[in-house]
Design goal:
single chain, mainly alpha, 2 domains, globular
Length: 183
């Protein structure tokens, strides 16, 4: 018999550290990203701050274990927002489309990363993170589905859940994680 429990909100604080962590989560497991984030936070003089990341530069960040690409992304982010301390506060006041555009204008921030920030940090109710493999697998496990959908197909399916796509994503992630834990 299935046990139903409340779906977690998985809310995250806003700002540079969180956006860096989301960048680290791109295309890797959450556990792997969390481990790297913690390790670098302890090793990097000043921790995950725009000043510390800018000071380390891309070579320094690679020396801490980031890939060439992610090192470039976090350094570009540090340099962009480091001189503008109110950037994240202004971002939070923008509507979904403008916040998405502001995020995706940053080097290394694509639709998935921007959507995760909008969903988890800004807690916007109608955000769907395109290309999220766990969501694709969760949709594929729904009774009316017979396979894991592509990004385009998953996005089309999620349209049915507007204007509550973020809630649908949380429910699907929760179900996916519970099913994975159950074996």
């Amino acid at each position: 018999m299935a046990t139903y429990v409340p779906t977690p909100l998985w809310a995250r604080p806003g700002g540079f550290r969180t956006l860096v962590r989301i960048i680290l989560e791109q295309q890797v497991s959450l556990a792997s990203a969390a481990s790297l984030f913690r390790r670098v936070d302890g090793e990097l003089r000043g921790g995950w701050s725009p000043v510390a990341v800018s000071r380390a530069g891309e070579a320094g960040m690679r020396g801490h274990g980031l890939t060439r690409q992610k090192a470039a992304f976090v350094v570009a982010l540090a340099e962009r927002v480091g001189g503008e301390p109110q950037w994240f506060r202004r971002l939070a006041r923008l509507d979904d489309a403008d916040a998405f555009a502001a995020l995706t204008s940053l080097h290394g921030i694509g639709p998935w990363t921007a959507s995760i920030y909008l969903l988890m940090v800004l807690r916007r109710p109608d955000v769907w993170p395109p290309g999220d493999l766990a969501l694709h697998k969760a949709i594929g496990a729904l009774p009316d589905q017979h396979r894991t959908p592509s990004t385009q197909e998953a996005t089309a399916i999620a349209e049915r859940w507007a204007p509550h796509r973020a809630t649908a994503a949380r429910i699907l992630w929760h179900g996916y994680l519970r099913q994975k834990a159950d074996g």
